[in-house]
Write a structure and sequence with these properties.
By secondary structure, this protein is an alpha+beta fold. 20% of the residues lie in helices and 42% in strands. It folds into two domains: 123 residues, Diaminopimelate Epimerase, Chain A, domain 1; 138 residues, Diaminopimelate Epimerase, Chain A, domain 1. The two termini are 19 Å apart.
Length: 280
């Protein structure tokens, strides 16, 4: 199969978006092939036409991604010959349509702001200590960590303000994801004083565990957590390995995420489609 795709850089969170329709049942396998072809990529999404909207986007793991949403909006605007505008999207992990405002800058980079889904809830959760020698499921142990978890449809982000070795974080992510019964999990290492965020994202459906250069939904989760302490309105810019993302929470509890997008490549690839008896 000849597959059309884009390689984009939304604030360092390198993203592949496939523009050729692919059945959801085989998307994880196609995503794996694309990530091998584009080793800098951290995630893969699939684009479709959508009645009443400018574009539809489904992430390989079925989660919501703000960076990929801004990227899809840029492609929709560019395809329509626009240099700015509000793009309406249907995105996995979000109810209803998502609006993203994008504008091309003089250097070819696009600035973008997307209205993020509201978190369903924020609660303190006791997690098994990833350094425990006992079984992952041994919750009878007193060795637990109590951390804030911010739930969205499709993903849950855990805010971690304590230092944790990378190997322990990578060990914790799948265990804590199962503990929360979440579709996907983000560990957001937040440094309030430095206004920085280091994201680790685990998506079991896509088989990925990645230290991302930036995470839009994780930034939104951190903003929701911090706004709970400061009150509304609230805004913060969080420096991440790939650049800064800004989250604003309005008095009406609208969550706005702002960043930048650059189109790195528009290409075609020969992809092997796995045999399936039926597709979703």
């Amino acid at each position: 199969m000849r597959l059309e795709y884009y390689l984009l850089d939304p604030t360092g969170n390198i993203t592949v978006l496939a523009a050729t329709p692919v059945p959801p049942a085989v998307q994880p396998e196609i995503a794996s092939q694309l990530m091998k072809m584009e080793p800098s990529a951290e995630q893969v999404g699939f684009l479709y036409g959508a009645d009443g909207c400018d574009m539809a986007l489904r992430m390989a793991g079925g989660e919501f991604c703000g960076n990929a949403s801004m990227s899809a909006a840029v492609i929709a605007a560019a395809d329509a010959g626009k240099k700015q505008g509000d793009m309406r999207l249907l995105v996995s992990g979000a109810e209803g349509s998502v609006t993203a405002r994008v504008e091309m800058q003089t250097d070819g980079t696009w600035s973008g702001t997307v209205e993020m889904p509201k978190p369903a809830e924020t609660e303190m959760i006791s997690f098994p200590d990833p350094d425990m020698k006992s079984s992952d499921t041994d919750m009878e142990s007193s060795h637990t960590l109590t951390l804030p978890a911010v739930r969205f449809e499709g993903i849950c982000h855990v805010i971690v303000e304590e230092k944790m070795p990378r190997d322990l974080a990578e060990k914790a992510a799948p265990v804590w994801c199962r503990h929360l019964n979440a579709d996907a999990l983000g560990l957001m290492f937040l440094d309030r004083e430095a206004c920085s965020l280091t994201p680790l994202v685990y998506v079991p459906a896509a088989g990925t565990l990645c230290w991302e250069n930036s995470c839009a939904s994780g930034t939104t989760a951190a903003g929701a957590f911090l706004a709970g302490h400061t009150g509304l309105p609230f805004s913060i810019s969080l420096r991440q390995p790939g650049g800064s993302l800004t989250v604003t929470v309005t008095e009406e509890r609208t969550y706005l995420l702002s960043g930048s997008v650059r189109i790195r490549k528009h290409d075609f690839a020969e992809i092997e489609i796995p045999d399936i008896t039926e597709s979703e």
